[in-house]
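Entry 14. Ran structure prediction on the chain below.
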Amino acid sequence: RSIQKTFRPGEVKDWTPAGSSQLMFRVKNIYPDFYFQPELKETSLDQGRPAIQLLISEGREKRTEILFAGVDGRDKFSISPGGNLFRFIWEPLSQDQMDALAQTKSPAHIISFEKKDCCPKQEIEVKVGEEYKLGPGGRYQLKIIRFLPDFVYDIAARKQATRSDEPNNPALQVAITETASGVTEEQWLFARMPEFGKTHGIKKEGPDLIYHYIPSAPPPEKELLIVGKTREAIELARGKIIKKYLLPKDGQPIAGTAILGFKIYESAEEIKKPATRSEDWKNPAAEFEIQQGATVQSRFFFSGSPQPLFLPDGKSALALQSSPEDVKAYRSKLAVLQGGKKILGKIIRVNDPLYYQGYVFYQSNYKKEDPTYSGIMVVRDPGLILVWIGFGMVCLGLVFIYYVRPAIQRRSKNA
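Output, structure tokens:
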């Protein structure tokens, strides 16, 4: 048996019993276009990293972008592919580091290493022929054997090869050794198949290895370098400084950029809060509060991928279903004006039109997005009286055929 309750955005309902498990629930909030909005939370210096939170204008939309100084892949972003680059650092760069920004970057090989039961995630840049110690106390040793830019397996020669010098299918051959046991295993890591390194390893129980290939790249055409410690902005063109200036106060826009506001943190961590991108029902979600005894917990339900919460009674479940606004009735309010005065008015419905001097006004269509619009069909049938006369003659003819004529025939026969 299914029991449905309807809730609207911003409407918090009272506690409602669920099933026979003595569990209560209520809707805390509804999000028409759900997403987790990233935000920064200030922390002590030993718990976080230097960070900046930016409010970006991207066309007609606004979005939040968070950058962390010194975290590869999280310290810069472009508004669009090939667009202006924004980079966040904490300490001012030395002259050698500034000169390096103007140089074309060589290809880079990045290895992401993680083992959930022992080793926190590490990301290191590696080079072919070198060895690296990974994990606490050097629990694993990683050796980079060779690199193939366009990997293919040559069946005839029964060996790995490269089809070209272009990085169409970058692959890295590595050897991973467990230091304590001395067990070594060689494997290939593929930049275009990052999950491959998670299913292969020492006895298939080794660490996860993910390979990232960063191709060579010239300096960006335009770049804004934000220095957190000195609150300085440096505009670069192909890596060359063209302008320096101090940043405005937190919360203010940075002139000449798409940054509508910002806030700099010396040490922060990222948190995510539920929010809605718009009022359009693109990704509906609801946050429920569920109470069982003295315990109250929050739970998110998503209509796009409904995963019910099965209750302790083993018979009941809670689930979210977004229901479009159904049309409750088709009605239009009509008025007939003559000489500027209203002489007749009526609310018309399906099969209940307005009649006026031989004209019939029907409700024919509507616009869901514009409730002030009604499509009205006007019908006039001056020959309708002839149709009714015809129907009457047909009925009289049937009566004559089946009743009058048989009666006349019987009388004639009897006579």
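Residues 406 and 412 are 10 Å apart (CA to CA). Will compare against last week's run tomorrow.
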